[in-house]
Amino acid sequence: MRTNKNTSKIILAIVVALLATMISYSSFNNMQAQLGEKEKILETLQGSDTIKDFSYAVATKDLKAGELVADDDIDFSSFSTPTFGAFENRSDVVNKVLLKDIIKGTVFTDSYIAKISGDEIELKEGFRALTLPAEKFQGKSNRMKTGSNVDILSDFEGGWSMEGVKIIGLEGEKGLPAGDIINAKTITFEVPADDMADLIMSISKGNLILVSRNPGDKKIGLKKKKSPASTYSANDSYSSLPNLPANIPISDYPSSGVSGLPQPIAPLSNAPSVEVIEANVKTKVTFD
């Protein structure tokens, strides 16, 4: 009798163990399925964050520095990663002067087009914030910081210069503030609106030179150079040329049909003359 009771207990324990195992297995499978679904949802969410289109203006053909970008010179392409300094608006590129050559398919950035902005920047009246690539400037030194005034000179024929230009921003990688001008990728200047076009055209012709100024230096130290063609005047005289008679306008000549062209010398009306008689031959000689 006692043996039967023990056997029943053993059988009951085995049945309970089997049921517990089956329940645990089923729960484990359900957990695995739930984890799989959660992983799929997480991958979908992560994919939506990383796969994002960035639309930027690109060149449709090769263009040279100094050219004005036309509307049909640009198109827009999508990229999966952002590009620092790229342009997203057509109006920021069209009718702007190229600072350097660009080849077809290249993204327009602020190294090709000067950025002009007054947003969130306190500017003096009549001035603009002009951002230019730092690589286009020579003569940079650690004395030049945000707030410094500098002179800008050109080194190409004809010359060009601008005095007392204020540096209002030095940008490094990804648009973050740069520690100094040496490591800056772009420089933002406070430029008079009337001189902005001249500065952009000058930088498209070649590199410009930065010159440090004393903080309290308000005196004019530079004079804008002019090309030889622009300095010539009709009133200028040269020692190597003979003194020519002044030109007489045709309208000042008498109305007798005389033109402004040189005329042959007319013979004198009362020219002196003598008669010569040789061997019964009479000859009259007139002296003109």
What this model shows, in words?
This protein has 288 residues and is of the alpha+beta class. The protein has 3 domains: 8-48; 52-113, Alpha-Beta Complex (Type Iii Antifreeze Protein Isoform Hplc 12); 123-227. It is 22% helix and 23% strand. The protein contains 3 helices and 11 strands; from the N terminus they run αββββββββαβαββ. It has helices at residues 2-50, 196-205, 228-231; strands at 54-59, 74-79, 115-117, 127-133, 137-138, 149-154, 161-171, 186-192, 208-212, 273-278, 281-286. The strands form 3 sheets. Strands 3-4-8-7-6-9-5 form a 7-stranded mixed sheet, covered by helices on one side. It is elongated, with a radius of gyration of 44 Å. The model is unreliable at 225-241 (pLDDT under 50).
In short:
This protein has 3 helices and 11 strands.
Mean pLDDT: 76
Strand order of the largest sheet: 3-4-8-7-6-9-5
Uncertain spans, ≥5 residues at pLDDT below 50?
225-241
Summed up, the helix count is 3
Extended strand count:
11
Taking all Cα atoms into account, the compactness measure Rg is 44 Å
> What structural class is derived from the secondary structure elements?
alpha+beta
Number of domains: 3
Largest sheet: 7 strands, mixed
The end-to-end distance, rounded to whole angstroms, is 179 Å
What does the overall shape look like?
elongated
Helix content: 10-25%
The ordered H/E elements are HEEEEEEEEHEHEE
